[in-house]
Each structure stands twice: as structure tokens, then as C-alpha cells.
Amino acid sequence: MKTYYDCLPCLIRQAVEAVRMVTDDEAVQEKVIRQVLLETARIDLQKTPPHMARIIHRHIKEALGNIDPYKDIKDRFNQFAMQMYAKLQKQVQNSADPFETALRLAIAGNIIDFGVRVDIEEQHIEETIEECLKSPIVFNSPDDLQKAIDAAKNILFLGDNAGEIVFDKLLIEQMPMDKISYAVKGFPIINDATMEDAIDTGMTGLIKVLDNGCDAPGTILELCSEKFQEVFRQADLVIAKGQGNYETLSGVNDKDIFFLLKVKCPVIAQDLGCECGSIVVKRITA
Amino acid sequence: MKTYYDCLPCLIRQAVEAVRMVTDDEAVQEKVIRQVLLETARIDLQKTPPHMARIIHRHIKEALGNIDPYKDIKDRFNQFAMQMYAKLQKQVQNSADPFETALRLAIAGNIIDFGVRVDIEEQHIEETIEECLKSPIVFNSPDDLQKAIDAAKNILFLGDNAGEIVFDKLLIEQMPMDKISYAVKGFPIINDATMEDAIDTGMTGLIKVLDNGCDAPGTILELCSEKFQEVFRQADLVIAKGQGNYETLSGVNDKDIFFLLKVKCPVIAQDLGCECGSIVVKRITA
Question: Distance from B33 to chain A by nearest Cα, in Å?
């Protein structure tokens, strides 16, 4: 997905929120915000919003000498999700359709996205779970995904955020785990899950986890490590969580990809062709 | 009011919406948006948001060779308000407190602000009227304003937007009209009312109208004409409509000013110390 003009104020807002979250020093805040505005003035609009977000957050991280400004947020939501985990696992097991319930919960976990808003509270997650369990899924059905999983030999599951990764475990437990690799980001970027989060939440104890070697909030293939690119090439099915993975991979035309996400922004809603707030299972095929 | 960091994404959004409204030429859109981002990168944050909005809209107007991109919008809302006028005038006359009813309607008219959003529809105005007639007024009371008007010898009424100017007529008719001057903007800026709107809506037939000689969406005194500055100095009471006038005059400390506005943005809500959406009558005194 290209960067729309409407993404520009949102990228600036994201920078303002991020810089404010990590420092009270107004001189540093102002310096970073001016740098971000200058960068945005020369943005390549043909590239995806995560390309620009990566550049913006590099400025923030460099200016602050703090390579992981969202560390506390990530830990907090990993812990919160871990506390819900046993209960949600039972809910999946006791449901009429464990796969669909787990899928809906995995999408609910996608609400934990600090790129979209920084005022997410635990209460929002509980509300989103309720909503995702009963609202319609748009584009493709859980059954479409189930069939693709059954047919696949080699599945690459692209994670999105910390906290959300725990919800992904619920879905992965309903899948043939020996066929799946789970990818996290190579370096801290916003609240996206890294290897540390995969270890902390027990994902590494469940299936093979690799990092993508990149610090973009999505999957910019050309910036990912050779190793990750090879795993991507080898996969005959990709399951991609969240807006960032949709933005960066929706243009791929030689791969079977299912995007699983909660739509949280009007630009992505329009690009997808659905309402903002939708619960999306969207397949693109080779 | 200084420019807060949160104003920056909003100024960019405003530029995107404005440029899109006035041209479909993507090359022109992109050029203007990049200029606006560069300007914003060197913004003086100690100045008010209307300072920056003035610079941004100069870029838009220059790039488009179109000195009044909001002309159609202004005409449309003048006409819509004029169609409601006789009915609203009767409503004022038949109400238990005509002054308060007219004041509430004048504040309701402040919803017609295309700086805040460009998707205002006639229906929003009708809803806002209903809301403004029954919701509480915050900070000062209609009676505070009535007393200040009774005591004043020389009142300067600073208008805000086209369409809204018709609602201001309802309030002015409840005031001693010979004591009042009504000010409009000197040049087109967003959908702010200019002399043309004052003529079209009959304001010039009701009281003395002057323009402020400036093209900012507010009242930046040092950029206004000498003539306007003199009228401002002579006034012993200023009634200032809308967010732009609040932003540019809230720091004045030698004048009796009543700000009348519908709060439409969280930054102004925070600066004022009230909820977004509030119906404000706020006095500052020398």
C-alpha cells in the first residue's frame, strides 16, 4: 500500500505521541519533531507508511539514546495478556469451533497497536475481545483459512505486536505447529514484538521463532535479512497479522497470504474496501 | 495561545483537506503538501496556530492561483443560514429569554468551521442548534455578558465564519446596535467571513462593519490594519467568536473580552480547561 496524504498527519501525530512518551525534555521533543517534519517533507509517497515510520522512529531513538522507548509498554501488555491466557485457552477449548474462536481472539489481540494510539488501556482489550467474538468477519471465512492451513506444507506466521503475540499463541495451538515458523521484528520498533517478547511469552517454547532482521513496523521484504527472505520464499502460506504487515505486503503478487487484522484507521479501511473497525481475514493469492 | 505539538498534525490535515478540496491535480497537491511540511518544520511554536494556518493557506492559494478556494462553501452556508434566519428569529422572539436564546444560536453557528473539518453538512448545524439550546454554558453566564454589554459604550464584535455570520445577526439584534462594530477578515482565509459575506447576509444593513485588513483565521493584532487596531483600542468591550479568535486573543491582558465559541478541538479544550464540545462564554478582563 502506498502512503496516502492522510497518512502524513497521522505519522506526525505518531511522532509527537512517541517523543512525548519517552522524554519530558522540551528541547529534545522539539528537535525531533522538527526533524520528523523535514523527513516527511521529502517522503517517497510510493513507499508504504511503515517505510516512513521506520525513519521517523530512528530519529526518535537516536535523539533519545534509547533504543527501545516502548519497552515498558511491551512488558506491560505481555504480562496482561499472559494473565488472560489460561482463561482464553479454556474458552477456545470449550467453544463449538475452537479454530474460529482462536482466530477471532488472535484478531482481537491486534488492538494492542501503539502506532495507532498511545492511550490503549487493558479495558479496551477486554471490550475488543467481546466484540471480535461476535462481530462478522469480512472478506474471507475462518474456513478458507482452515483449508489453506490444511493444504500448506510450510507456514510463515508474521507476528505484529507485543501482548498480541500471546493471542497469536491461542491460534497457533489450533494449527499444525510443526509446519509453522513465527517471525518477530529484528529490532525494537514502536510496540512490535521482538525475540525478547517471543521468549517472555513462551512463543519460543511452542514453535520455531525467527526475527526478520529489520526495524520497520511491518514486513519490508527488501530490508529484511537474507535468512528471513529465504524463509518467506520457502513458505507456501503466509499468515500476516496487523495493519503494518498489510501495508507492506498487500502488493505481493506471488504468494498465498492471509491478512488477519482489526482495522483501526480510515485509510486502511478504504484501501481494503471495508469499514473502519472491521475484523478482517483477507486472502491474496499468487 | 501558543502552538502545541498536537496542533502540528492538525495543521497538516487541514492543508491536505484544503488542497484536495480545491484541485484534483496530484502534482499540485503534492507540491503544496511538501511546502506545508517544510514550513511546519520551521514553525515558531510561540506564535498561535492561526499564524501558521495563514502561512499554510497562502501556499495553497498561491499554488492554485485561486485566492478564495472556499468561496463555494461560504456561499452555500450563507444561503443555508439565511434560509433558517426568519424561523430562528421567531424562535428568539418567542423564547422566555430572547438574549440567551440568541446567544446560544450564535454559538451554535460556530460549528460552521471548515478549519476543523471539511465534511460539515447542513444536518450538523441543525443538530448543533438543538444541542446548544439545551446544553450548559461553561465559564460565564449569559447574564455576565448582558451586564457587560449594558455597561459598554463601544463594542467590537469579531465575527468568525461565513454562514455563522447570520447566526451572529440574531445576537446583535438583541444588543444595542448603535454601539457595535462588526469585524470581518480582510482577505479570504478558509471559510472565514469577509466583507462580501457581510454584504450578502445583510450584516452591513444592520450595523457598521469593518474588515481587519488581515488574512489570518483569527485576530493577529499586529498584522491587522491600523484602522482596525484603532477600533480595537477604542472598544471597551470585545465579543470574539470562535476558536481562531480565542487562539489569537486569549493572551491579551488589557481588554474586556468575551469569547463565544463551540469547542471543537481537544487542544483548545485543554487550554480553556473544559470538555471538547463545550459551549463557551469566557470572559477575560484587563
Answer: 8
Q: What is the rounded average pLDDT for all residues in chain B?
A: 95
Task: Give every CB contact of residue A216 below 8 A, 6+ residues apart in sequence.
Answer: A50, A51, A53, A54, A185, A189, A223, A244, A248
Segment B21-30, tens digit of pLDDT: 888 999 999 9
Q: Is there a contact between A8 and B38 if contact means CB atoms under 8 Å apart?
A: no
The span from the CA of B194 to the CA of B211, in Å, is: 7
B29 alpha carbon, distance to own chain's centre = 26
CB atoms within 10 A of CB B150: 9
Closest CA relative to residue B198, chosen from B116, B113, B96, B82: B82
Calpha distance A218→A212 (Å, rounded): 10
Q: What is the ipTM of this complex?
A: 0.86
B15 CB contacts (<8 Å, ≥6 apart)? B32, B33, B36, B56, B59, B60
Which of chain B's residues have a Cβ under 8 Å away from the Cβ of A38?
A: 37-38, 41
Which residue in B has a C-alpha nearest to residue A7's C-alpha? Answer: B13
Model pLDDT for residues A179-218, shown as the tens digit of each residue: 999 999 999 999 999 999 999 999 999 999 999 999 999 9
State the Cα–Cα distance between residues A103 and B107, nearest whole angstrom: 49
